[in-house]
Structure formats: C-alpha cells, structure tokens
C-alpha cells in the first residue's frame, strides 16, 4: 500500500492528489492521509472536497503500520534496539523522481511539484475531470460571476502576486519574492504579442498591487472572502487566456488547467532557494528573470 500525506494549501494538495491519481492509474493500492499533515498547521485544512473530490482515506492504523510508529512498550523497545522499520519517504529534492511511480509500499511526504508525475493521457484526463468544473459548481457570489464575464470578453491575462507569507521571517529564507521588475518584464512581453491584453491581478496583497499596477488594463480582483474563495479564484485564473504566474503552486495549477494551444505562460526563473526545482516548469512555460 502507498499512503500520500496531504498537506499545505490548495495548490500543494492538488499536486498530491495528482500523484494519487497517477499511482492508481498504474495499478497501485493508494490512500491519502488527510490528518497528519495538518496537526501542526493551524492555517490550513483539507480542501479538495470543495471540488467534489472523494478519495480513499488511510486509517490511523494503516499510517502507523507503514511508518512503524506504534507506541506500545514492546514496539518502542524494539525500535531502540534495532531501529525504525519505516516505509516513510520524504521528498528531498524538488526534481522528478521516477522511482516514486514504481513503489509498492510507501508513506510519501512531500509536494511532488512536477507534471512528469502525471504525464500519461489517463492521468491528465482524470485530473482534469477532477478540477475542471462548471462555474456554477464553484462560484456562488455575484462578484465572481462579474469577473468571469469580464475575463471571457477580452484578451485576459491572470497575474498572480504572492507576498504576505513569502516575506515573513519564517519563510523569506526559502521563498523568492517575485520582483516588481519580473512583473513589468512579463507584462511587457505579453503586450508585445497582445497589445489589447487586460490583466486580472490575483493576490494576497491588494494594496501593494493597487500601488504598483495602475491603468485601465489592470484590475485587482477582490472576491468576497469565505469558504471556497480560493477555489473560485483558481477557476477564474484558469479561464484567463494567458498567465503570469508567481513561484506558487496555486498559479501553476491555474495555468495548467488552461489547455488552450495558444496560451502564454510566463514564470519566474527561480522557484525557491533551498531545492532544485527545475522540473516544476512545464513545456508550455517561458522563464522570466526574477
């Protein structure tokens, strides 16, 4: 049996679910542990149910068995004497590891941020079936519908700016903050090919974006906050014709879900500081200096 630990925000959970699908399509027995990864993360919860997704859930007993973490006295003494006999595998590099797709028994902890993990046609079909929903299935507020109408009526570009959690003391040594120059260069590249482009800005720092992106072709999207807002934003971003993404799994997925053959996807040339992330880039992306 293979158990995948669910953790992180929406984009990360989508990558973990994509690996779940890929392993199942290769005939593996796969389940998801959607509890352990959130024990010490009070800001996030499992959110895939917002897409109407169901998956095989691992029991606590199954997690304990694969990670050799029984707490009875005999098991604890044995571990002290002979070591832990665990099937846990922690993702060390951000590069694609083909051996992951060949496993039979494992407890997988990581983000698995590469489309190389789900490259088969059956994988892509099943993942799109899971995440590509009709707008009425994901949006319930008037603001979202208004934004969708605007997106569909112009040469729309999603522009994702992620700042607040990337600049705090806990994360700034890991995450690169996409510079203002990165965004300006990406905007100019879009405008060279599509002079009438309209940029829809999705961000966690609306005030900064309003200060730095001014003009009639820039719109900072402000949805009503509540349960399902992230999923509504993801859907709206994916409906744009082109994409300027941040070094974020959230906008990565928004761009991936748009399968238009003529789309432009501009991405920062460096993803994070502490891992080799070359395999996060898809064939459809063009790198821009960060």
Architecture overview:
Keywords: Glycosyltransferase, Transferase. GO terms for molecular function: galactoside 2-alpha-L-fucosyltransferase activity. This protein has two domains: 2-130; 135-288, Rossmann fold, CATH 3.40.50. It is 35% helix and 14% strand. The protein has ten helices and ten strands. The protein has helices at 10-25, 60-67, 73-82, 121-131, 135-138, 142-152, 180-193, 206-212, 229-239, 249-257, and strands at 2-5, 30-33, 88-90, 106-109, 156-161, 198-203, 218-220, 242-244, 265-268, 285-288. The radius of gyration is 20 Å and the shape is elongated. The model has no long low-confidence stretch (mean pLDDT 92).
Name the descriptors:
Rossmann fold; elongated; Glycosyl transferase family 11; 10 strands; 10 helices; galactoside 2-alpha-L-fucosyltransferase activity; alpha/beta; Glyco_trans_11
